[in-house]
Amino acid sequence: MRARILGLAAAAACLAMPVNAAVVLGDATGSYTISQAGSAIRFTIGKAGGGGFDGAFARFKGTIRIDNNDVGRSKVDLTIYPESVGTGQGRIDAFLRSDAVFDATNSPEIQFRSTSVSRTGDTTALVTGRLTARGKTFPEKFTADLDGLKGGTIKFHVTGKVLRSRYGMDVGTPLYSNVVDFDMTLTGRRG
Amino acid sequence: MQTITNTTTRYGWATIVLHWLIGIIFIGQFTLGFVMVRTQSQRTAFELIQLHKSLGFLLLGLIILRIAWRLGNAAPPLPPSVGALERRSAPLAHLALYVFQLALPLSGWALVSVSTLEIPSMPFNLFVMPNLSLPESDAAESFWASAHWYLAYAGIALVALHVCAALRHHFLLRDSVLTRMITPSSTGE
Ligand code: HEM
Ligand code: HEM
After folding, report:
1. In a domain, B129, yes or no
2. Is residue B7 part of a domain?
3. How do residues B43-83 score in pLDDT, each as one tens digit?
4. Would you say residue A2 has pLDDT above 80?
5. Can you state the percent helix, strand and coil of chain A, rounding each to 5?
6. Which residues are bridge partners to A155 per DSSP?
7. B186: which residues sit within 8 A by CB, 6+ positions away?
């Protein structure tokens, strides 16, 4: 219920919104710094014959700006350091960091810059933006689901699919799917 | 058409084609294996290893076919000029070659099956080859990797001996041993 009221809030635009909700939503407006504590960027890649392999990036930084008066003007910036990739298997990590995949030495950052945010439900929004990895930039979409807002802390669950071949990371297809399933928890602290 | 099967004086086309097809792929596999584990680019190495696995499975299929064919098609006796020692050792050497041809792809298959990397096998991207049901662990992986390594090097040494023997027959002894493995029109004299 709480999360509902807090909904990614084109709230101000919503006349039916109860007065107290608007107050809480007013609270959501602002800039948040994504903190690694409480956040996780996980991914899964399906494998031929079933199953898949999971990994996560341990280091990243970013900001979330929420504009209640005009949700479309909200913004998300995220920078991931591919050097920090971890799958629980050291040899696979080394392979991912190498120039076979991320080429982390020459392309130390993967960046996402949102270009538009549109509300799709009470607590959900579609975030469109430009993803840059290994010098290549393509538009990508992610679904953000508001998971909580408490004090100065806001939490989103973000999912999306990215085709790795476009970024020069097609190694291993079709043994490993071209589709990378992202599943992130992003916790932002005000300020 | 009658030249497909072996007779008491010559090899038939089926034996000949399988021999050379497998011979080329076998030596190619050794070379590929040698090169791929020394390749700097991780991407190229990954792709070469997948190719090595694909060719290895193809080879396994061809070898099973070859052994089945051989069981139903006795090899022609060696030409009369061949000495007693060689008459006894050649079949043993050939038997050992058959053992290596089976053991190499099987040990490779075991290696990828127990590997903690869990990389699937997909011969020529056509279908998923199931793993052998062996428990995976780092220890089992290094065991099969060294077994595969020893088999590969011992196998290629035996092949080298085999090739030298064939060349000796052709250039020094000048008998029909090599030519009869090239065409059925060459019979033992
Ligand atoms: C007749 C068939 C085969 C031959 C002659 C052969 C030969 C070789 C050779 C020479 C190496 C390099 C060893 C070294 O120098 O470290 C190698 C490595 C390897 N082979 Fe094979 N192989 C055969 C079949 C297979 C098959 C069927 C598979 C798997 C399905 C396989 C999987 C591998 C793997 C994964 C490696 C890398 C091992 C490592 O990283 O140390 N091989 N093979
Ligand atoms: C490329 C160089 C090669 C040459 C010149 C060569 C030559 C020959 C010749 C002349 C024979 C006939 C022997 C006879 O009549 O008793 C023969 C038989 C045989 N070769 Fe090769 N060979 C080569 C490569 C290989 C390889 C790489 C393998 C397998 C790893 C192999 C496996 C065999 C086997 C198993 C036989 C016995 C066939 C039977 O059962 O009668 N050869 N080879």
Report:
1. yes
2. no
3. 999 999 999 999 999 999 999 999 999 999 999 999 999 99
4. no
5. 20, 50, 30
6. A148, A187
7. B10, B176, B179, B180
pLDDT of A173 > 90? The answer is: yes
Is ipTM over 0.90?
no
Question: What's the domain count of chain B?
Answer: 1
* Beta carbon of B170 within 6 Å of any ligand 2 atom: no
Ligand whose nearest atom lies closest to the CA of B152: 1
pLDDT one digit per residue (tens) for chain B, 189 residues: 579 999 998 999 999 999 999 999 999 999 999 999 999 999 999 999 999 999 999 999 999 999 999 999 999 999 999 999 999 999 999 999 999 999 999 999 999 999 999 999 999 999 999 999 999 999 999 999 999 999 999 999 999 999 999 999 999 999 999 999 999 987 654
Query: From the CA atom positions of chain A, what is the Rg in Å?
Result: 18
Evaluate whether residue B188 is within a structural domain: no
Q: Are A86 and A156 in contact (CB under 8 A)?
A: no
CB atoms near residue B161 (< 10 Å): 13
A with B: how many residue pairs have Cβ under 8 Å apart?
A: 38
Q: How many domains does chain A have?
A: 1
Of residues A74 and A28, more confidence is placed in A74
- Residue ranges making up the domain that contains B41: 13-181
User: What's the domain range around A61?
Assistant: 2-190
Nearest CA to B82 out of B178, B172, B169 is that of B169
Q: Enumerate the β-bridge partners of residue A145.
A: A124, A157
Q: Which residues of A touch B (CB under 8 A)?
A: 47-49, 51, 53, 89, 91-92, 94-95, 98-100, 171-172, 174-175
Q: pLDDT tens digits, residue range A103-142?
A: 999 999 999 999 999 989 888 999 999 999 999 999 999 9
Measured between CA atoms, the residue of chain A closest to residue B123 is A175
Residue A164 DSSP class? G
Residue B26: CB atoms within 10 A of its CB come to 23
CATH label of the domain that carries residue A85: 2.40.128.110
Q: What pLDDT shows up at residue B94? A: 98
The residue of A99, A175, A176 whose CB has the most chain B CBs within 10 angstroms, and thus the best one to mutate to test that interface, is A175
